[in-house]
Write a structure and sequence with these properties.
The chain is an alpha+beta fold. The protein is about 30% helix and about 30% strand. The chain has an 8-stranded antiparallel beta barrel, surrounded by 4 helices. α1 runs antiparallel to α3. The longest helix is centred in the first third of the chain and has 18 residues. It comes from Actinoplanes auranticolor.
Length: about 260
C-alpha cells in the first residue's frame, strides 16, 4: 500500500468538469478485506473524493462489484499525463492522504489492479455525470456494466472494438457506451503501479437490472456482435464483465 509523508501542495490544477473532459483515465479495482467495503467508503466518501479533486483529479464513477462485495471499482480522470503526475504528487504527498491513508490502507488486500487509459480513436466519451447523491430514475441504484478486454500483443484487434464494434455494441445495448483504450505513455508515477498490456474498457449505465437484462438478451442475439466476439475469442482476447452498483458519491455518467 502507498505510504507517503506530508508535503506542501503545489498550485491547484484546473480540473475537467467531468470524466468526459479527461484525456487520461484510470480504472482502479481494489480487493478489500472481507466485510470492510463500508469502512473504506466512510473515509473515501467523506474525505478522499474532495481531497483528490482539490488536487486536480476528477472522479467519474465509484462502484461496488455486485458479484464480489469486497471489490471496489472506481474511475478517476486527468486533463493530461503531465497533469496526472502533478495531481498525484499533490494528493499523495498532501495532508488529506497523510491523515487518512492508514484507515484506507487497512481495508485493502490489493490496490494494484489498475488500467491507465485514454480516449479511443474515434473517441467514445461518457456523458454528463450524475450529481453526487442525486436520486436515480428509480428507487434502486443504477445498474452499471463495465467490460474490460485484454488484447494479446500483436493481434491489432483494437479497431474491431473501438470502431465498428462500438457501433454494434451500442446499438444492441440501446444506451450510450463510453470506451477507452490503453494509454501508451509510460506511467510517470511508478509508486502507483498500472497493469501492462493492451486493454479496451467500455462503460454503460442502465436504469435498473430489468433494462440491463433486456439489453443483454439483445446483445446475445445480435449476429453482428457474435461475429465480432468470435473473432476476438479466436485471437485469444479475454473479456471481463462487471456488474456495478454506484456508491452515494459515484458521479458516474448518466444513462
Amino acid at each position: 500500500m502507498l505510504q507517503m509523508g506530508e508535503a506542501m501542495p503545489s498550485q491547484p490544477l484546473a480540473v475537467p468538469a467531468d470524466l468526459a473532459g479527461c484525456d487520461v483515465v484510470e480504472m482502479r479495482r481494489y480487493t478489500l478485506r472481507p466485510g470492510t467495503f463500508d469502512e473504506l467508503q466512510a473515509v473515501f466518501q467523506r474525505w478522499l473524493v474532495d481531497g483528490q479533486e482539490r488536487s486536480g483529479m476528477r472522479l467519474g464513477g465509484q462502484f461496488r462489484d455486485r458479484d464480489d462485495p469486497d471489490r471496489f471499482v472506481w474511475f478517476r480522470g486527468f486533463a493530461s499525463m503531465p497533469q496526472r503526475h502533478q495531481a498525484l504528487e499533490d494528493f499523495y504527498l498532501g495532508q488529506v492522504w497523510h491523515a487518512h491513508r492508514d484507515t484506507a490502507n487497512a481495508t485493502m488486500i490489493d490496490s494494484d489492479d489498475v488500467l491507465l487509459l485514454r480516449a479511443t480513436e474515434p473517441a467514445h466519451r461518457p456523458g454528463p455525470a450524475v450529481d453526487a447523491g442525486a436520486p436515480g430514475p428509480t428507487a434502486d441504484p443504477a445498474w452499471v456494466i463495465a467490460l474490460a478486454w485484454s488484447l494479446p500483443a500483436g493481434t491489432y484487434l483494437e479497431p474491431a472494438l473501438t470502431g465498428h464494434g462500438h457501433e454494434v455494441l451500442q446499438q444492441a445495448l440501446g444506451v450510450p457506451v463510453a470506451m477507452w483504450r490503453t494509454e501508451p505513455s509510460p506511467n510517470t508515477f511508478p509508486r502507483l503501479p498500472v497493469r501492462d498490456g493492451d486493454h479496451v474498457v467500455a462503460l454503460a449505465v442502465f436504469a435498473d437490472r430489468e433494462q440491463w437484462s433486456r439489453a443483454e438478451k439483445r446483445l446475445g442475439a445480435d449476429t453482428g456482435w457474435q461475429r465480432i466476439a468470435e473473432r476476438l475469442d479466436e485471437a485469444g482476447v479475454t473479456v471481463e464483465l462487471m456488474h456495478l452498483e454506484p456508491t452515494a458519491t459515484s458521479r458516474h455518467p448518466m444513462s
